[in-house]
């Protein structure tokens, strides 16, 4: 017992001496706990052949609910260690999001310095960052995710990312060795694609690049992302048509974005284009998604915003148009209430759903669909 105690004491002294040695200092660190809780009551018409639904949606409102930890440690010489752990959850049932992952939204560690930021783990792709400025409504329940459910879920496992900025110009690149390590699916309806298989280095690979410029009152951005197929993967265009097999490493699913925004006083206008192409040995399908939105701060407490979306998939003969209008009133710096409404027009063969609130609201083909939601959001 005594020898064990002496060994422990000697080890403690050794650690203390090492920390006191030249070149090894106790660096200053900072850790922040943060989060968003957001939900409400939603009405969706023609939610199935049985009619409308009145519900508390399983996912999101204005913003997906989450909690997280982010931290930095000053390493000296302009360098800092960084990390972020972010968990998504659903208020309706208190369950975890992103396939029940503990930190399904983000989980990475990295180094930040004068020449950019390098990080490793589960992270957003460059598609997500490129859309931040021009997509006015963002990951709203009646936003771009109603036409392409991947957009608000644009993140990958096993990834390395690098981002750097200089005088408003930003560049980013990401590479994933296998975009779905947990096997729970990163995007609804598209299966899983674990990757990192010996001898199959291309299977389930994802890479993306982004270039953007932000000035005081305007900005432009462009991005490109390519996903490769793999075991258990599928390609879904979310238009009511059957999913396509996406099991070969030679299969490609690409998204290209181009967007811009402009600010004038309390007004912000943004818009752009997202083009998607799925190429396999059996199909070559392409869609174009256009969006245009605006936000106006009537007072410091009142914000009104809205967006119009139009998607065209000529290969499936499916088209959809959705208009969303939203009003948000801030009760305090951290708490807000909101009301929003949207209507989605489907072409004869299309069955896009107006709501991105957790599924279960796909209308019959060709049926228009309305969505209305009253909600509350709190940040901490």
TrEMBL record:
Listed under GO biological process in this entry are: monoatomic ion transport
What residue range is the signal peptide? 1-27
Q: What are the subcellular locations of this protein? A: Cell outer membrane
Which InterPro entries does the annotation name?
A: Gram-neg_bact_OMP (IPR050298), Gram_neg_porin_domain (IPR033900), Porin_dom_sf (IPR023614), Porin_Neis (IPR002299)
Please report the record's description of how this protein sits within the membrane.
Answer: Multi-pass membrane protein
**UniProt cross-references to Gene3D superfamilies, sorted A to Z:** Porin
Q: What is this protein called?
A: Outer membrane porin protein
The organism of origin for this protein: Pandoraea eparura
């Amino acid at each position: 017992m005594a020898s064990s105690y002496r060994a422990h004491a000697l080890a403690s002294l050794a650690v203390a001496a090492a920390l006191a040695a030249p070149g090894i200092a106790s660096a200053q660190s900072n850790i922040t706990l943060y989060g968003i809780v957001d939900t409400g009551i939603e009405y969706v018409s023609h939610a199935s052949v049985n009619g409308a639904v009145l519900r508390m949606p399983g996912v999101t409102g204005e913003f997906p609910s989450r909690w997280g930890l982010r931290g930095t440690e000053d390493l000296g010489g302009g360098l800092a260690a960084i990390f972020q752990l972010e968990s998504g959850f659903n208020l309706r049932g208190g369950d975890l999001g992103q396939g029940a992952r503990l930190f399904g939204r983000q989980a990475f560690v990295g180094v930040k310095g004068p020449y950019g930021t390098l990080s490793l783990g589960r992270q957003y792709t460059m598609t997500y960052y490129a859309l931040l400025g021009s997509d006015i409504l963002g990951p709203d329940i009646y936003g771009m995710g109603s036409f392409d459910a991947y957009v608000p879920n644009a993140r990958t496992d096993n990834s390395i990312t690098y981002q750097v900025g200089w005088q408003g110009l930003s560049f980013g690149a990401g590479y994933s060795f296998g975009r779905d390590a947990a096997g729970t699916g990163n995007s609804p309806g598209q299966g899983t694609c674990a990757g990192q298989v010996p001898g199959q280095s291309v299977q389930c690979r994802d890479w993306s690049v982004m270039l953007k410029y932000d000035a005081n009152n305007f900005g432009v951005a462009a991005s490109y992302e390519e996903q490769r197929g793999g075991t258990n993967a599928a390609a879904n265009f979310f238009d009511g048509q059957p999913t396509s097999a996406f099991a070969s490493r030679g299969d490609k699913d690409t998204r290209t974005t181009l967007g811009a925004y402009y600010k004038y006083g309390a007004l912000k206008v943004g818009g752009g284009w997202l083009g998607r192409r799925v190429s396999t040995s059996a199909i070559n399908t392409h869609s174009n998604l256009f969006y245009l939105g605006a936000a106006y701060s009537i007072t410091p407490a009142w914000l009104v915003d809205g967006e119009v979306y139009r998607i065209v998939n000529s290969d499936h003969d499916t088209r959809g148009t959705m208009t969303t209008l939203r009003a948000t009133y801030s009760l305090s710096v951290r708490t807000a209430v909101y009301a929003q409404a949207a209507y989605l027009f489907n072409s004869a063969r299309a069955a896009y759903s107006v709501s991105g609130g957790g599924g279960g609201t796909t209308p019959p083909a060709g049926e228009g669909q309305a969505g209305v939601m009253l909600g509350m959001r709190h940040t901490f």
